[in-house]
Amino acid sequence: MVVFAGFLAGRREEPLEARERFAVLLYEPYWMLGGLLFAALAASFQRRTRRPPDQDA
């Protein structure tokens, strides 16, 4: 993703190679989406299963 951002910002003059295009346009966004979904699901699960603190003290 950093390579692609640099390419779009004009910091990289040479074009992306086929392997880099595959990684930047397909492989890396796939894993990024998976990580974001996992974080969202973990936060949702934590909110649903959180117990209020004990009021005994």
In short:
The protein has helices at 2-8, 18-49. The protein is mainly α and 57 residues long.
What brief labels describe this structure?
57 residues, mainly alpha, 2 helices, 0% strand
- Main sheet summary: none
Q: Helicity, in percent? A: 55-70%
Overall pLDDT metric: 83
Rounded to an integer, what's the Rg over CA atoms?
20 Å
User: Spans of 5+ residues with little confidence (pLDDT < 50)?
Assistant: none
Shape: elongated
**What are the secondary-structure elements, in order, as H or E?**
HH
End-to-end separation in angstroms reads 50 Å
Helices, by number, come to 2
How many strands in all?
0
How much of the sequence lies in strands comes to under 5%
Category from helices, strands and their pairing: mainly alpha
Please characterize this protein's 3D structure.
By secondary structure, the protein is an all-alpha fold. It is 68% helix and 0% strand. The chain has two helices and no strands. It has helices spanning 2-8, 18-49. The longest helix has 32 residues, at 18-49. It is elongated.
